[in-house]
Amino acid sequence: MLRHARTARSARRLALSLATLAVVGTSTATASAEASAPTAEARPATTREFDFGACPSLSELPAGADPGAWRCEAMNAVGHLTLGRIDQPLGKALTITFAEGTVNGEFHQVFGEMRAAPVRIRGTALTITPRYAGHSDFQSNDERRGELDLKFRLSGPAVPPGCSIGTDAAPVRLVLKETEAPTVVSPDPLVVSFGVEDKRFAGPTTSGCGRLGPVLDAALRLPSPGGANGIDLDARVAFRSYSEGE
To answer: Which UniProt keywords apply (predicted)?
Structure first.
Protein backbone atom coordinates (compact mmCIF):
# COMPACT_ATOMS: atom_id res chain seq x y z
CA MET A 1 0.00 0.00 0.00
CA LEU A 2 2.81 2.37 1.01
CA ARG A 3 4.80 1.41 -2.07
CA HIS A 4 1.77 2.08 -4.27
CA ALA A 5 1.34 5.52 -2.70
CA ARG A 6 4.99 6.39 -3.30
CA THR A 7 4.73 5.25 -6.91
CA ALA A 8 1.61 7.35 -7.37
CA ARG A 9 3.34 10.41 -5.91
CA SER A 10 6.33 9.85 -8.20
CA ALA A 11 4.03 9.58 -11.18
CA ARG A 12 2.25 12.81 -10.20
CA ARG A 13 5.58 14.64 -9.83
CA LEU A 14 6.67 13.38 -13.22
CA ALA A 15 3.37 14.39 -14.80
CA LEU A 16 3.70 17.86 -13.25
CA SER A 17 7.24 18.30 -14.54
CA LEU A 18 6.15 17.16 -17.99
CA ALA A 19 3.28 19.63 -17.91
CA THR A 20 5.75 22.37 -17.03
CA LEU A 21 7.88 21.32 -19.98
CA ALA A 22 4.86 21.57 -22.25
CA VAL A 23 4.21 25.14 -21.14
CA VAL A 24 7.74 26.48 -20.89
CA GLY A 25 9.37 24.89 -23.94
CA THR A 26 13.06 24.31 -24.44
CA SER A 27 14.61 27.17 -26.36
CA THR A 28 16.38 29.00 -23.52
CA ALA A 29 18.10 25.95 -22.08
CA THR A 30 19.06 24.76 -25.52
CA ALA A 31 20.90 27.96 -26.34
CA SER A 32 22.88 27.97 -23.09
CA ALA A 33 23.63 24.25 -23.25
CA GLU A 34 24.80 24.48 -26.83
CA ALA A 35 27.20 27.24 -25.88
CA SER A 36 28.80 25.06 -23.20
CA ALA A 37 28.64 21.70 -24.98
CA PRO A 38 32.03 20.26 -26.00
CA THR A 39 32.80 19.75 -29.66
CA ALA A 40 34.90 17.14 -31.39
CA GLU A 41 37.52 19.78 -32.16
CA ALA A 42 37.98 20.49 -28.44
CA ARG A 43 39.10 16.96 -27.64
CA PRO A 44 42.76 15.89 -27.83
CA ALA A 45 44.02 14.04 -30.91
CA THR A 46 45.17 10.87 -29.18
CA THR A 47 44.01 7.26 -29.19
CA ARG A 48 43.86 7.36 -25.39
CA GLU A 49 40.36 8.80 -25.72
CA PHE A 50 39.26 5.76 -27.74
CA ASP A 51 38.28 2.36 -26.35
CA PHE A 52 39.17 -0.57 -28.58
CA GLY A 53 38.05 -3.04 -25.90
CA ALA A 54 34.67 -3.52 -27.59
CA CYS A 55 36.13 -4.33 -31.01
CA PRO A 56 34.78 -7.58 -32.46
CA SER A 57 37.23 -10.40 -31.82
CA LEU A 58 39.02 -12.21 -34.64
CA SER A 59 36.67 -15.16 -34.09
CA GLU A 60 33.69 -12.88 -34.78
CA LEU A 61 34.98 -11.83 -38.20
CA PRO A 62 33.66 -13.66 -41.28
CA ALA A 63 35.23 -16.98 -42.17
CA GLY A 64 38.31 -16.45 -44.29
CA ALA A 65 38.94 -12.90 -43.04
CA ASP A 66 42.60 -11.89 -43.31
CA PRO A 67 43.55 -9.84 -40.21
CA GLY A 68 45.77 -7.68 -42.41
CA ALA A 69 42.76 -6.68 -44.51
CA TRP A 70 40.55 -5.83 -41.52
CA ARG A 71 40.53 -2.97 -39.06
CA CYS A 72 38.53 -1.90 -36.03
CA GLU A 73 37.15 1.63 -35.93
CA ALA A 74 36.43 3.33 -32.61
CA MET A 75 34.29 6.45 -32.90
CA ASN A 76 33.53 9.13 -30.30
CA ALA A 77 30.90 11.75 -31.09
CA VAL A 78 29.17 14.68 -29.41
CA GLY A 79 26.36 16.75 -30.86
CA HIS A 80 22.71 17.74 -30.56
CA LEU A 81 19.39 15.86 -30.64
CA THR A 82 15.98 17.25 -31.56
CA LEU A 83 13.17 14.73 -31.18
CA GLY A 84 9.62 15.96 -30.73
CA ARG A 85 9.85 18.53 -27.94
CA ILE A 86 13.24 17.22 -26.82
CA ASP A 87 15.98 19.63 -27.84
CA GLN A 88 19.17 18.59 -26.07
CA PRO A 89 22.93 18.78 -26.51
CA LEU A 90 24.64 15.40 -26.44
CA GLY A 91 27.62 16.69 -24.52
CA LYS A 92 28.88 13.32 -23.30
CA ALA A 93 30.54 11.23 -25.96
CA LEU A 94 28.54 8.60 -27.79
CA THR A 95 30.92 5.75 -28.67
CA ILE A 96 30.64 3.15 -31.40
CA THR A 97 33.05 0.37 -32.34
CA PHE A 98 32.87 -1.85 -35.40
CA ALA A 99 35.10 -3.84 -37.72
CA GLU A 100 35.30 -3.64 -41.48
CA GLY A 101 37.29 -5.33 -44.19
CA THR A 102 37.08 -7.61 -47.20
CA VAL A 103 36.78 -11.34 -47.79
CA ASN A 104 37.53 -12.49 -51.33
CA GLY A 105 37.18 -8.90 -52.51
CA GLU A 106 33.75 -8.41 -50.93
CA PHE A 107 33.24 -5.71 -48.28
CA HIS A 108 31.95 -6.78 -44.85
CA GLN A 109 31.20 -5.12 -41.51
CA VAL A 110 30.82 -6.51 -37.99
CA PHE A 111 29.23 -4.32 -35.31
CA GLY A 112 30.91 -4.20 -31.93
CA GLU A 113 29.23 -1.97 -29.38
CA MET A 114 27.53 1.37 -28.82
CA ARG A 115 27.65 3.27 -25.54
CA ALA A 116 25.95 6.52 -24.56
CA ALA A 117 25.36 8.32 -21.28
CA PRO A 118 21.86 9.34 -20.11
CA VAL A 119 20.98 12.97 -20.82
CA ARG A 120 18.58 14.85 -18.55
CA ILE A 121 15.59 16.34 -20.36
CA ARG A 122 15.32 19.94 -19.20
CA GLY A 123 12.52 20.75 -16.80
CA THR A 124 11.74 17.12 -16.02
CA ALA A 125 13.00 14.21 -13.96
CA LEU A 126 13.41 12.22 -17.17
CA THR A 127 16.61 11.13 -18.86
CA ILE A 128 16.99 9.96 -22.43
CA THR A 129 19.68 7.51 -23.57
CA PRO A 130 20.42 6.60 -27.21
CA ARG A 131 20.69 2.82 -27.63
CA TYR A 132 21.70 0.64 -30.58
CA ALA A 133 18.66 -0.99 -32.19
CA GLY A 134 20.20 -3.72 -34.32
CA HIS A 135 21.24 -2.25 -37.68
CA SER A 136 24.22 -0.28 -38.90
CA ASP A 137 25.91 0.31 -42.23
CA PHE A 138 28.97 2.53 -42.22
CA GLN A 139 30.00 2.00 -45.84
CA SER A 140 29.79 5.50 -47.31
CA ASN A 141 28.46 6.30 -50.76
CA ASP A 142 27.49 9.42 -52.71
CA GLU A 143 24.13 9.63 -50.94
CA ARG A 144 24.99 9.14 -47.29
CA ARG A 145 27.78 8.65 -44.80
CA GLY A 146 26.08 5.70 -43.13
CA GLU A 147 22.98 4.30 -41.47
CA LEU A 148 22.29 3.59 -37.81
CA ASP A 149 19.16 2.28 -36.08
CA LEU A 150 18.51 3.73 -32.63
CA LYS A 151 15.99 3.56 -29.84
CA PHE A 152 15.91 6.17 -27.08
CA ARG A 153 15.45 4.82 -23.58
CA LEU A 154 13.42 6.98 -21.20
CA SER A 155 14.05 6.77 -17.45
CA GLY A 156 12.61 8.60 -14.47
CA PRO A 157 10.28 8.28 -11.47
CA ALA A 158 7.53 5.72 -12.10
CA VAL A 159 8.78 5.12 -15.66
CA PRO A 160 8.87 1.34 -16.20
CA PRO A 161 11.99 -0.43 -17.50
CA GLY A 162 11.84 -0.80 -21.25
CA CYS A 163 10.13 2.55 -21.84
CA SER A 164 11.59 4.01 -25.02
CA ILE A 165 11.07 6.03 -28.16
CA GLY A 166 11.58 3.43 -30.87
CA THR A 167 12.23 -0.28 -30.38
CA ASP A 168 14.39 -3.00 -31.89
CA ALA A 169 11.41 -4.02 -34.02
CA ALA A 170 10.48 -0.44 -34.98
CA PRO A 171 13.63 1.67 -34.58
CA VAL A 172 14.46 5.24 -35.44
CA ARG A 173 16.61 4.82 -38.55
CA LEU A 174 19.22 7.51 -39.10
CA VAL A 175 20.49 8.08 -42.63
CA LEU A 176 23.49 10.26 -41.91
CA LYS A 177 24.60 12.92 -44.38
CA GLU A 178 28.07 14.41 -44.31
CA THR A 179 28.25 18.00 -43.02
CA GLU A 180 32.03 18.22 -42.65
CA ALA A 181 34.44 16.30 -44.86
CA PRO A 182 36.87 13.91 -43.15
CA THR A 183 40.00 15.64 -41.86
CA VAL A 184 43.11 13.86 -40.63
CA VAL A 185 43.67 15.02 -37.06
CA SER A 186 46.62 12.71 -36.44
CA PRO A 187 48.44 10.61 -39.07
CA ASP A 188 50.12 8.27 -36.56
CA PRO A 189 48.10 6.95 -34.88
CA LEU A 190 45.48 7.67 -37.52
CA VAL A 191 42.61 9.77 -36.16
CA VAL A 192 40.04 11.36 -38.48
CA SER A 193 37.32 13.91 -37.68
CA PHE A 194 34.10 14.56 -39.62
CA GLY A 195 30.54 15.83 -39.18
CA VAL A 196 27.22 14.13 -39.97
CA GLU A 197 23.54 14.86 -39.54
CA ASP A 198 20.07 13.55 -40.26
CA LYS A 199 17.24 16.08 -40.38
CA ARG A 200 14.63 13.85 -42.00
CA PHE A 201 13.80 11.01 -39.60
CA ALA A 202 10.39 10.66 -37.95
CA GLY A 203 9.89 10.29 -34.20
CA PRO A 204 7.50 7.50 -33.16
CA THR A 205 5.32 7.36 -30.06
CA THR A 206 6.73 5.84 -26.90
CA SER A 207 6.68 2.08 -26.35
CA GLY A 208 6.72 0.00 -23.20
CA CYS A 209 5.82 2.93 -20.96
CA GLY A 210 2.58 1.55 -19.54
CA ARG A 211 0.01 4.09 -18.37
CA LEU A 212 2.54 6.90 -18.69
CA GLY A 213 2.76 6.35 -22.45
CA PRO A 214 0.00 8.80 -23.45
CA VAL A 215 1.27 11.38 -20.92
CA LEU A 216 4.81 11.15 -22.28
CA ASP A 217 3.63 11.27 -25.88
CA ALA A 218 1.60 14.43 -25.24
CA ALA A 219 4.36 16.18 -23.30
CA LEU A 220 7.13 15.23 -25.73
CA ARG A 221 5.00 15.90 -28.84
CA LEU A 222 5.19 12.39 -30.19
CA PRO A 223 4.80 11.15 -32.81
CA SER A 224 6.85 13.78 -34.60
CA PRO A 225 6.89 13.86 -38.41
CA GLY A 226 9.95 13.58 -40.58
CA GLY A 227 11.61 16.94 -41.01
CA ALA A 228 10.73 18.11 -37.49
CA ASN A 229 13.56 16.17 -35.84
CA GLY A 230 17.31 16.09 -36.20
CA ILE A 231 20.62 14.84 -34.93
CA ASP A 232 24.00 16.49 -35.51
CA LEU A 233 27.24 14.73 -34.61
CA ASP A 234 30.84 15.90 -34.54
CA ALA A 235 32.85 12.71 -34.62
CA ARG A 236 36.38 11.43 -34.34
CA VAL A 237 37.43 7.96 -35.39
CA ALA A 238 40.60 6.05 -34.55
CA PHE A 239 41.68 2.98 -36.52
CA ARG A 240 43.46 -0.21 -35.49
CA SER A 241 44.43 -3.02 -37.83
CA TYR A 242 43.67 -6.57 -36.76
CA SER A 243 47.21 -7.44 -37.78
CA GLU A 244 48.32 -5.49 -34.69
CA GLY A 245 46.66 -8.05 -32.43
CA GLU A 246 43.55 -7.91 -30.25
So the answer is: Signal
